Amino acid sequence: MKIEKSNIGLNGMWKERLFFTSFLVSLFLPLAILPLSSHAQHKKNSDNKTPASAGKVMSYQDSAMVKQLFFSALREKTVENYKLATEMFERILQADPSNDASLYELANLKRQQNDFAGSEPLLEQAVAINKDNEWYWAALADSYEKTNTIDKLENVFNQLIRINPDKSAYYFDKANAFNILKRYDDALKVYDEVEKLDGPSDDILANRQKIYLKQGKIELAASELEKQIAANPGEVRYYLALGEIYNSNGFGDKALKILQQAEKLDPRNGMVHFALADIYRDKKNNEASFNELTQGFAIPDIGIDQKLNIISGYFPKFPDANAKASALELSRILTVAHPNDARAYAIYGDMLIQNNKYKEAKPVIKKSAQLNDQVYNVQEQLVRLELGDNDLDAAIRDGENALSLFPNQAWMNYLVGVAWAQKKDNNKAVGYVKNATSLELQDKELLSLSFSLLGDCYHELKNIKSSDESYDKALTYNPDNAFTLNNYAYYLSLRNEQLEKAATMSAHSNELQPNTASFEDTYAWILFKQKKYAQAKEWMEKALGHDKENSAVKYEHYGDILFFLGNTEAAVMNWKKAKGFGEQSSVLDRKINEKKYSE
Question: Residue of 8, 69, 341, 490 with fewest CB within 10 Å of its CB?
Fold first, then answer.
């Protein structure tokens, strides 16, 4: 439960707790030094304590013991030995049940442990003994709030106002309590009292508006704001408040009219543009709505957080092209209005990616990383873009820089490993990718990709045993990784090993990713190795049909298959095509010259 204004006043009270404790010490010190009769003590306190506070008459020894015990309890509380402090305050109350300071301290100890229900009876006793102690009443108000005992707050705030009639926070607290209890007319009367005390204020106006709206008195709420506009025609905030009341209660035309006045008054007010955008959107005038948004976004005085929230509101509409285009344009404007905020470039880069503008996204994401290198996701996105653009040197440079800041990021280790593998430095690639597998134990996608890449690298390094083991491990994490299946199968066929296993894997890769020329070529080659020439011819023709690059290797393989099917003339023709497409090898030359297959 929350009372809107209450925390303001009460928090201030707690900041002054140290002063109150010092006050208690100064109060008790003279008593500890000069022996006074118990009669004198009661007489001294008779002005601010009720007769109920007078318990048994304490002896001098009892009184001295209580004072000494109180100081000791405060000391234990100061060093956070709360258990012992609690026991000491309880002993004081056994000897002197009317010791209101101990009741208060013991209640505070319970409140520190969130035992607000336990603190309430102690504070109720304290205020019954000492009715004029502001701190006691404030603590009791806080406990009632925490236990949602709202019906008891009226009396508490009446007492606080009696003690400190010039503190407006107590009036707001009281009004808020009435508000929660739905005693709206009583709350309005309290706001009238505050206004007499401090004069008119926006806080009072806003709280009255809330009550009028809860009572359904829309015209009254609006008329109050209209009076403010008449009295303060240059204050845009009143126009905005009135526009919000009209718009949220179904008076869109009135809201539009008042906000258009505000726009003429202050065309550089971003909040006015955003409010108008909402109204135009409700009226299905999307073009006018977006125009107002773009004007609001271009104003630097409006914080970037609110603008980021507006852009994120488009995300649920993706992949709608209009939503993506709108988010893209707004994020672009964001970088102009907030050129030194990394978040502006990060979301603009992300929107460029969402719109498949990868080349344009790369420098934008890089700018975000330069402005703030402590956001890992931006660093990873940059390296991914660089890899996608085949900018391997940049990927390695930025990836290794990111790892100097975030050394335990498995994906970044993998991405840098990919870059080194593509540069044919397989030893460096293996080092980074092995880091990735040691850092990540749960992400099956990353583990499958990493072990698959290790299989490729180890193959290039002629470490066949480690290559096969890596491929097998990759497939345990993802048996449907089509590229792993294809590569592993192809390398087995080159070695003429485990051809049945290779054929099974290759066939599955083609099921997963049909019409892929390189996968079809692999399967045709394995069938050729198994001497299934007719099937091999069928799959090689598929590969050639889907090949857009005129692969020399595929034409050479096709010639090999045709030779074993007895069509030597067609075989030689395809071997020559392979040579014409750039294949240079002594084996191919021998096939052409001798017109027969050669390994």
Answer: 8
Tell me the per-residue pLDDT of 162-197, one tens digit each, with 9 for 90 and over.
999 999 999 999 999 999 999 999 999 999 999 999
Neighbouring C-alpha atoms within 13 Å toward the C-beta of 4: 12
Contact in structure between 1 and 143 (CB atoms under 8 Å):
no
Spatial distance between the Cα atoms of 70 and 88, rounded to a whole number of angstroms: 7
What sign results for the dihedral spanned by CA atoms 209, 212, 213, 217?
Answer: negative
- What is the rounded distance in angstroms from the CA atom of residue 376 to the CA atom of residue 541? 47
6 pLDDT higher than 60:
no
User: CA-based angle 524:527:530, to the nearest 5?
Assistant: 155
Q: What is the pTM of this model?
A: 0.72
pLDDT band at 43 (very low <50, low <70, confident <90, very high): very low
CB 269 within 8 A of CB 288: no
pLDDT by residue (tens digit) across 557-592? Answer: 999 999 999 999 999 999 999 999 998 899 999 999
**459 in helix, strand or coil?**
helix
Find the length of the chain.
Answer: 599
Residue 332 CA, distance from chain mean position:
22
Provide long-range contacts, Cβ within 8 A and 24+ apart, for 174-181.
Answer: 175/5, 175/207, 176/3, 176/4, 176/5, 176/6, 177/3, 177/150, 177/153, 178/154, 179/207, 179/210, 179/211, 180/1, 180/3, 180/150, 181/150, 181/151
Using CA atoms, how far apart are residues 301 and 350, in angstroms rounded to an integer? 24
pLDDT of residue 543: 95
